Amino acid sequence: MNTLTRWEPMRELQTMRRFMDRFMDEPFFDAPQLWSQGGENFPLPLDVIEQEGEYIVKASMPGVEPDQVEITLTDNVLTIKGESKRESDDNQSNYHVRERHYGSFMRQISLPMGVDADKVEATHENGVLILHLPKSEASKPKKISVKKTVDSNSQSQINAHNGQTSGQTQS
Prior knowledge:
The strands form 2 sheets. A 4-stranded antiparallel sheet has the order 1-2-7-6, with no helix packed on it. The chain has a 3-stranded antiparallel sheet with strand order 3-4-5, with no helix packed on it. The longest helix is centred in the first third of the chain and has 17 residues. The chain has a domain of 119 residues: Immunoglobulin-like. It is an alpha+beta fold. It has 3 helices and 7 strands.
């Protein structure tokens, strides 16, 4: 028995858009790493949160020891590099599913404001690297108050209205 499926062009367009969105989410400079043969390199998933006085970066790195991670900050570009070692197993293993990533990783993030590199703190907890990057004082926004000025012409009109001469001031 043959089945007839109605063609819905909007569904096709939505599928194509989702595909393109996923494709464009990955930066072009990471493309060789993502598509390398053997899966030796993999992207580092992370979150960047901006708070009033700092940025917080959380990077998922399960199975990576803290001493295998290199973090650098140069010209507001944060770089996180490291390597996840493959567990030793014999080649005779019969995997049904193998999705965990092994190999080297690198991720660079451009921060919109300057960071005080001397006060950066890094912790590693339950496979998550947490970086606290305090904003530098020079890059923090400064509030400028506006003072009201009174020109001499306006002051004489105010004095005249209050019954004073230009040489008198009210006590």
